[in-house]
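Curious: explain these tokens?
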Amino acid sequence: MTVKSLLLGAAAAVAFAPGAMAERGADGEVKILYWQAPSILNPFLSGGTKDVESASLIVEPLARYNEKGELVPWLVEEIPTVANGGVSEDLTTITWKIMPGLKWSDGTDFTSEDVKFSWEYCTHPEGGCAQSTKFEGVGSVDTPDPLTVVVNFDGPTPFPYGPFVGGESPIIQKAQFADCMGARAPECTDQNFGPIGTGPFVVTEFRPNDVITLVANDYYRDPAKPAFGEVTFKGGGDAAAAGRAVMETGEFDYAWNLQLAPDVISQMEQGGKGVPVVAFGPLLERIHLNHTNPDPALGPDERSVVRPHPFLQEPAVYQAMKMAIDQPLLVEVGYGQAGRVTCNWVPAPDAFNSDSMSCDTQDIAGANKLLDDAGFVDSDGDGVREANGVPMRISFQTSTNAVRQDFQALIKQWWSEIGIDAELRNINASVFFGGDPGSPDTFQKFYADVEMYANTFNGTDPQSYLGNGLCDKAPSPANQWQGENVSRFCMEEYDALHAQLRSTADMAERARIGRELNDMFVMNGGMIPLVQRGRLSARATTLGGVVLNVWDSELWNVADWYRMDE
């Protein structure tokens, strides 16, 4: 099957669970808890999941993915295909037809100019955009009328559903952000903290790294939704406190990302106030290896910019570091049935899940031999090997979380057994995953040798996600530290192969190329995959309409949530 033949099919329709929604706002307040607190509500200025998902209450894409991974219309009448004329026969254009009558939350009309502007905003040459890979290959965007958007690609694009699709690529209002282009983007605090949107809720107050208060959008397209008139979106704390607040005390209605040991989850569920919800997708806990030098002695325009790293790009080093890790044990102690061992950057969907690597057996002896044979020895007997006279001491950072700190301690011990000393550092998650270009502690800035975190991608085609390995997607001062290539990985062969993926229509061949890109990134020291994580959250027993979605924002259908009787 080819992508073109897939496009010839009819667009999927989304069905929502029925709820008791007599009128907008009738069910009062819903309380959501993300222990990683949002720091900004503009997804273009942050790659953090907590920022993208909190913003999805407010700003929306033209189309998104449902819980089955099916592409569904959101602000448009249908999904463009070759069969319905929305995608050109030569696969160089896609035409979106906006749903008539859509309003922004300030009561003004939503038009094609807003869509075009969102592309211009993210691709401005003087700015940095965390979601720039979504617009890879887009040559121009036309607006022949207020309800029509034509995306023109530089060449045949068999998968044209990157721009304006999914929670990571929403539409922002041109009138609100017109003066926030390029280098000015991070300076527009009012806009970034209170975007005008088409979503079910409107921001009334945003305290970064703390709490967001929202009310129902009076101009939301369905007059009976949302059922809740108010949202309190609390950030901060830790995963354990979040789980207890839903399942034991009932203080909150929904808690996201319960990164906790399985026995802890089971004990919390006995509280009777809430239940866990879990589903598997491509969410991956991983360790990124810095391909640039993070030495604090370097200047601000050189640190984590100047190549290469003193030793982490040596194949024997990153292969030995990987061999020393006991991945099955990490799964057991960290996630239980909510985790799986994986060797891959893209562990799902199955077609893109490579089987060319093995990682289910720890091999300390083999790792030591590999380093010995490569000439990395401990010449002074202090237990730490040297590389070209430089001790192999590394800084290892991650966000503050009990499971991650357990992982850090175990991995530090294993690496010490092969002569690599790791200094551990944990950073508040709201800061680590924040988008502040002035902060030294963000995962994008990567002022460390290795760092551990998890992320995923929207939809079931990883083309844009794999684009995060492209050379020009590395965060740097030039792009205000935006971009998802946090390892600063760069291979001409990778860039060329990704260009081939963008122009390939055959589904089997796309999957083969995707697996090859995955292998190229991992085998050349871009990252060490650790655990394919199930998305595990919790909802109150009285909260209805929740449909956990691993292919888009977890809050994708919040307009359909409602209060059930006890």
